[in-house]
UniProtKB/TrEMBL annotation:
Keywords: Glycosyltransferase, Transferase. Pfam families: tRNA-synt_His. It comes from the Bacteria. The lineage of its organism: Bacteria, Pseudomonadati, Pseudomonadota, Alphaproteobacteria, Rhodobacterales. This is Histidine--tRNA ligase. SUPFAM superfamilies: Class II aaRS and biotin synthetases (SSF55681). Homodimer. The keyword Electron transport does not apply. InterPro entries: aa-tRNA-synth_II, aa-tRNA-synth_II/BPL/LPL, HisRS-like_core, HisRS/HisZ. Residues 14-351 form the Aminoacyl-transfer RNA synthetases class-II family profile domain.
């Protein structure tokens, strides 16, 4: 790997490029309050981040990225519209792949602009692509918003749709829920017995754990309500499957999605946004005919992406993570804005990987 001094110099070069695009420099502490991230993502974040405890400040986390502190700062003090750039280390556990770095430099470009989110998507993508220079990279794009719209349009209970939305970023869990809600997978025997019992608390088993009896009773009632609900239709499941399997060049993917939208009108507006984004990318000189689109792309990234997503990958180097990634995160501004919100999109580059590719490593 390139030495740190060279990585820092490359990071400074990238940050200067983003500043030339009108971005304001942003700085934030390496140690971040863990509470905010835990509230956003639940305990799952612990598996990906380094958490420590402070007697005065409570749980702290080595920053896993910059986006959350950028949004917090903008929602508290920022003017509109705004563009930010930053450069610094982030820290992420890599227990599933010990060969990958758990500490690396990121340089980012973030746009907060409510006037034309589609143009902002195209701007961030083109600025990041330009910053990557002549590196031979494959660009992948997607749109989480299309899948979210599909889930919102399902003919099923609000509770089921809420659960599916929550697990969009966990494909295996999402599939397991969809199979259960559609009746494709059988109800576990233990759950059948629980729901059939006249008194689930009979038998004198000790009541242990952190949940109160009232919370357990509420959960049982929710399970009963779910068991009484009609299954999601096979037709809707097949349409979702067709949607998730879309993986083509952007123009062809758009036509395929338009065909699916005929039978799944809930995704119509999201597909129209994709069409307008394609035109905005063309206006910025992007060769959309060679741009890949994957309907499932971005589903294993941080959960704040809720619209356009993209990444740049080294051809022939599947061992390397993405050299650059980004996406739209409107919902995050709503959560952190305490009643305020603004469309927001951004991307990050890993300068260390750029240098590694230049050196042929």
């Amino acid at each position: 790997m390139p030495e740190k001094a060279r990585v820092r110099a490359e990071a400074a070069r990238l940050r200067a490029l983003f500043e030339a695009e009108g971005a304001q420099g942003f700085e934030t502490s390496i140690l971040q309050p863990a509470e905010v991230l835990l509230d956003l993502y639940g305990e799952d974040i612990r598996a990906r981040a380094y958490v420590t405890s402070d007697a005065l400040r409570g749980e702290q986390m080595l920053r896993p990225d910059f986006t959350v502190p950028v949004v917090q700062a903008h929602m508290a003090y920022g003017a509109e519209p705004a563009r930010y750039t930053y450069a610094g280390e982030v820290f992420r556990r890599q227990e599933d792949d010990p060969d990958r770095e758990n500490e690396f430099m990121q340089v980012g470009y973030e746009v907060f602009d409510r006037e034309n989110p589609i143009d902002s998507d195209a701007e961030v993508f083109s600025v990041i692509q330009s910053a990557l220079g002549g590196a031979r990279l494959r660009a992948a794009t997607g749109d989480i918003g299309i899948l979210m719209a599909a889930v919102a349009g399902l003919q099923t209970t609000d509770a089921r749709k809420k659960a599916l939305r929550r697990h969009i970023w966990h494909p295996r869990r999402f599939r397991a829920l969809l199979d259960r809600y559609s009746g494709r997978s059988p109800v576990p025997a233990a759950r059948k017995a629980l729901l059939a019992a006249a008194d689930p608390f009979a038998g004198g088993a000790p009541e242990i754990g952190l949940r109160s009896r009232a919370e357990v009773e509420a959960r049982i009632e929710a399970l009963k309500a779910d068991a009484a609900a009609a299954p999601i239709s096979e037709r809707e499941v097949k349409l979702l499957d067709a949607l998730l399997q879309v993986r083509e060049t952007l123009p062809n993917a758009l036509e395929h999605l338009r065909d699916i939208a005929v039978d799944m009108p809930a995704i119509g507006k999201a597909v129209d946004r994709l069409a307008r984004r394609m035109k905005a990318l063309e206006k910025r000189g992007i060769d959309v005919a060679a741009l890949d689109f994957e309907a499932s792309y971005g589903r294993t990234s941080m959960e704040y992406y809720d619209g356009f997503v993209f990444g740049f990958y080294a051809e022939g180097r599947p061992d390397l993570p993405a050299v650059a990634t980004g996406g739209r995160y409107d919902a995050l501004t709503r959560v952190l804005g305490q009643g305020r919100e603004i469309p927001a999109v951004g991307g990050v580059v890993r300068p260390g990987l750029l240098l590694q590719l230049e050196a042929g490593q």
